[in-house]
Amino acid sequence: MQTPHPEALPIQAQGLSKTYKVGFWLNRTVRALQGLDLQVGPGQIYGLLGPNGAGKSTTIKILMNLVRPSGGTALLYGQPVDHAATRRLVGFLPENPAPYEYLTGREFVTLAGQLSGLSGQDLDRRVTEVMGAVEMAGAEKLQIRRYSKGMVQRVALAQALVGRPKLLILDEPTSGLDPLGRRQMRDLILAERDHGTTVLFCSHIIPDVEALCDRLAVLVGGRRVREGSVQELVSAQVPTVEMVVENLPLEKVKELGVVLESAQALDGRVLLQVSDADSQRLLGGVLGAGGRVNRIQPARFSLEQLFMDALKNSGRATSVGGEINT
Ligand SMILES: Nc1ncnc2c1ncn2[C@@H]1O[C@H](COP(=O)(O)OP(=O)(O)OP(=O)(O)O)[C@@H](O)[C@H]1O
């Protein structure tokens, strides 16, 4: 039997596409993915960031062999995604985990451990270890139907971790968690990376992506529109300047003929964002028209700005996958 290639990339996908048939007569097609390339190196935390319907879950489902791609290839450690020995190296947290409600948390995680090949004392020790890591030791004897959403998410993470995976694939790991729960989930993911585990996760929560990722891909409408480290992506943005103007209404500012990145009237003031290159012209125009500038400062580069720009540039007023009629 073929074995996983430990020197191969944990994840390598090329030209992935996926169309779903929808509608009562299945006569409409949604293009969930359109030629996606993805490479995740060992020990990285890699984020897929995108709005609702961008194709993040579809990508993850293809990697987990839950959905077949319509085109392209996906490899885990150099092997196809249905390769049994390779799949044992992967821990998976689905988007809406639905564990058996009448099992206790410990029974559920023990079952997952058995399925990943553990037994006897090793299994017992490992279950205790992961239940402790996700801070569920105190509630491990309760049936899952008594758990809160955050507790279900933790126990589902414990089942993903129990088999000591080399690669963790997490679909929206922090969704539905309160700020403390999100923080703890982030710490757990970082701790796994520190143990050498490779992590792929998807999210639309920008601060989580910013806090966790070594690299990320921004997906919009099933396409990868940006890729790189957070630092690379953020510093590649066009520098902009924020200006607060008084004594001049927004309509008059717009008449100055300077391209504004954003403009908002608030409490008798106008908040403006303009490219660095245009800022002097705007300043001159505002002062010349009798306005007063009471603050001017470089805008902080952020992943959020990048994300918004990516959405705007891809021409998507809405974020759902491209639907075509056939
Ligand atoms: N089983 C399915 N049948 C039909 N269309 C689907 C199916 N799964 C996903 N889609 C469509 O494919 C597109 C991409 O969906 P996907 O769930 O991959 O996006 P996502 O980025 O994970 O979004 P979200 O953040 O909302 O989970 C969407 O337009 C969605 O409606």
Automatic annotation (TrEMBL):
InterPro entries: AAA+_ATPase, ABC_transporter-like_ATP-bd, P-loop_NTPase. PROSITE patterns: ABC_TRANSPORTER_2. Residues 11-246 form the ABC transporter domain. It comes from the Bacteria. It holds the Pfam family ABC_tran. Keywords: ATP-binding, Nucleotide-binding, Transport. GO terms for molecular function: ATP binding; ATP hydrolysis activity. Belongs to the ABC transporter superfamily. This is ATP-binding cassette domain-containing protein. It comes from Corallococcus exiguus. The lineage of its organism: Bacteria, Pseudomonadati, Myxococcota, Myxococcia, Myxococcales.
